Give the backbone structure.
Amino acid sequence: GLRASDLALMRLFVSLFSASDRYHPVITPMLVAIGQHLGQSTFATLGGVAGGLVLVAIAHEAQRLARRLMPEALNFVLAVVAASVGCDDSAPGPYPLSRRQREAFGMLRIGAADGCRDADEQSLGVPWAWVTSPADKLSAREKYSVLRAALRLARRLADCYCALPAFVELFAPLEAQLATVAGRLPQFKLHQAPAAVVGEVAGLRAQLGEQLAEARAARAPLKLQYHRPLAIASVAPRFESHYSHEVHYDPDRVRAESTKLRRQLARERRGAVRELRRDAQFVAGQRLHEQAEKDKQYAAKMKRAWSVLEAEQGEMKKLDRQRIKERKAKV
């Protein structure tokens, strides 16, 4: 389970980092972990329920600007409200809970003998110390505090998601649950629900009624796009006894002239390309001819130079042979 330090660290992350980003290296994994905890954990103690309420508040703060739906947070709030008055005959909300989760939420049920009419608004808060509480049996004051916190979170979520197209499907179950809550809260003189909780239920019912009415009024059935009836063009066929593909038979003179000019431009472009290719081939041939002449002159020059060098080399060898003969004659 999550510890109090983990909840404090998550709240700090929401304050430090940009929670409205679609993908964030810190906030996105944190929201995934919050959704997994709210959707899969079994809240069997007061600390677990209080931690779940804190996680819902953190998720709302993270999505307050982006207004992206987090179904696990809404489902947790719906489950807490339903369990407070014993609406456990069916799975609350559009996202059903497991059997173990519904059994664990049974400790939040407010019975007819759970009266706390003397409690004021300040005493019906959810203190931070409850996050570490291992109690699995709640007093009447604690049950009403959890219910009031869930109702206030439901009001925040309704304000956050009121612009979604699926607002009716998301919050219509909560409206039905609030009607059951208003009828099942203890109303006897000795065992009476606190005025703060009764007022919270009435205020949320009024708010949801207005928002759901506006959402339903904004919906309209799908319709085909309206346009005036278009007449089907009826043109008598035209036959040409001497048809030629070089002649334009378009009845629109402007369009025919435009087509003619485009074809003429294409012919001129092809002719210009051919001329440029011929010029390029001629220039390349001239350059090859000039290079061949230069190579021929260079080869002749080198041949003359080699002939001079060979003649000089022959004279030197002849003189060397003569010197050797004279030296042998003296000996």
Notes: Residues 8 and 54 are 9 Å apart (CA to CA). The two ends are 122 Å apart (CA to CA). The chain is about 60% helix and 0% strand.
